[in-house]
């Protein structure tokens, strides 16, 4: 009887420890392990490839045509590395936009998650150029990066598409 109890206790303890270890390791294995599962659960995106016909250009007009926006990255855009971007903002007729308030947002539409960091515009560099710091992508696939730009009476949003290897 005692041996039986010991066996049951050992099994129970093993199960509990396994669960705890799994929970503790979630931040590490999460992106790799959960994402194929998450995207697989969404019927529309079960094949996990980006929709065809996405515009991957690094320069285009904002949604309502208020601004012309382009970006460059100081370093090649690869996953799991922090990047600094320079965002260039012009009015529709090509005048540099000074002292805009710019909010950064983004994520993976097919995975339903945002950016792992909270990138921010940290400096106005002059001539319509803004430094964006803290840009990071934690996995390969299709990403959207959005900038909400407010300057004087103007407000508009621009969205860039990226596909990253990973
Ligand atoms: Cu993802």
Task: Offer a concise description of the structure.
The protein is α+β, with helices and mostly antiparallel strands and 166 residues long.
Question: Can you lay out the helices and strands and say which pair or pack?
Answer:
Elements (H helix, E strand, L loop, with lengths): L1 H40 L17 E3 L5 E7 L9 E9 L9 E8 L4 E2 L5 E7 L2 E7 L5 E11 L2 E11 L2
Antiparallel strand pairs: 1-2, 2-3, 3-7, 4-5, 4-8, 6-7, 8-9
The structure holds copper (II) ion.
CATH class group of the largest domain: Mainly Beta
Helix percentage: 10-25%
| Known CATH architecture of the largest domain | Sandwich
Q: What characteristic shape results from the CA principal axes?
A: elongated
CATH superfamily of the largest domain: Domain of unknown function DUF4426
- How many distinct domains? 2
SS elements, strand count: 9
Bound molecule kinds, no repeats: copper (II) ion
- Number of H/I helices: 1
Q: Could you say which structural class the secondary elements and strand pairing correspond to?
A: alpha+beta
Could you please say which CATH topology of the largest domain applies here? Immunoglobulin-like
What is the N-to-C succession of helices and strands?
HEEEEEEEEE
Q: What would you say this structure looks like, in words?
A:
The chain is an alpha+beta fold and 166 residues long. The chain folds into two domains: 2-44; 59-164, Domain of unknown function DUF4426 (Immunoglobulin-like). Helix content is 24%, strand content 39%. A five-stranded antiparallel beta sheet has the order 1-2-3-7-6, with no helix packed on it. Strands 5-4-8-9 form a four-stranded antiparallel beta sheet, with no helix packed on it. A hairpin with a 5-residue loop joins strand 1 (59-61) and strand 2 (67-73). It is elongated, with a radius of gyration of 22 Å. Mean pLDDT is 88; it is low at 39-46. Copper (II) ion (CU) is lined by residues 35, 108, 111, 113, 139, 141.
